[in-house]
From TrEMBL:
InterPro entries: GrpB/CoaE, NT_sf. It holds the Pfam family GrpB. This is GrpB family protein.
Length: 175
């Protein structure tokens, strides 16, 4: 996987809306809400050009029955993929274009942390800029090493998530 971090693309929200509508049709009555998360959801933030989508559903256990429908759209069904209680789907192979992170509505912890980070970065452009600069630097340093890239972000992301959750829980965000 070649790691590319690019300037913010104003077409990302429309790409999210298009894919989210298709995913909503697949999930039907299981769907509770659907969110654009990750770096492409933050205006102005440099990002890997991968649209992250987070549907929340009534029952995470019911989601596996939709795997074939996701596969028709070109998604790989990855199961929990390291996060208990999640269903993860990715599209685009090594040149990934979309990632879907599905959580049951009762998984408030994981839902909240994703929304808190997104909303915090939207509300704190200086932090978003620092994050974008870090990602660009790491992409240059680790162009073919996703583990190195992710490891390089780990400390920043831990601090960001901690600050974002504190801010969010103080009423700055909406779940």
């Amino acid at each position: 996987m070649n790691i590319r971090v690019v300037p913010y693309n104003p077409e990302w929200p429309a790409a999210y809306e298009h894919e989210a509508a298709t995913i909503a049709r697949i999930l039907g009555n299981e769907l509770v809400a659907i969110y654009h998360i990750g770096s492409t959801s933050v205006p102005g933030l440099a990002a890997k050009p991968v649209i992250d989508i987070m549907p929340t559903v009534r029952s995470i256990e019911a989601i596996d029955r939709f795997d074939a429908s996701f596969e028709v759209l070109g998604y790989e069904c990855m199961g929990e993929f390291g996060i208990p209680g999640r269903r993860y789907y990715r599209k685009g192979g090594d040149e990934r274009t979309h990632q879907v992170h599905i959580f049951g509505r009762n998984n408030v912890r994981d839902i909240e942390r994703h929304l808190a980070v997104r909303d915090y970065l939207r509300a704190h452009p200086a932090t978003a800029h620092r994050y974008g600069e870090l990602k660009k630097s790491l992409a240059r340093r680790f162009p073919d090493d996703i583990e190195g890239y992710c490891d390089g972000k780990e400390v920043f992301m831990q601090e960001l998530e901690r600050a974002a959750l504190t801010w969010y829980r103080c009423g700055k965000g909406i779940l």
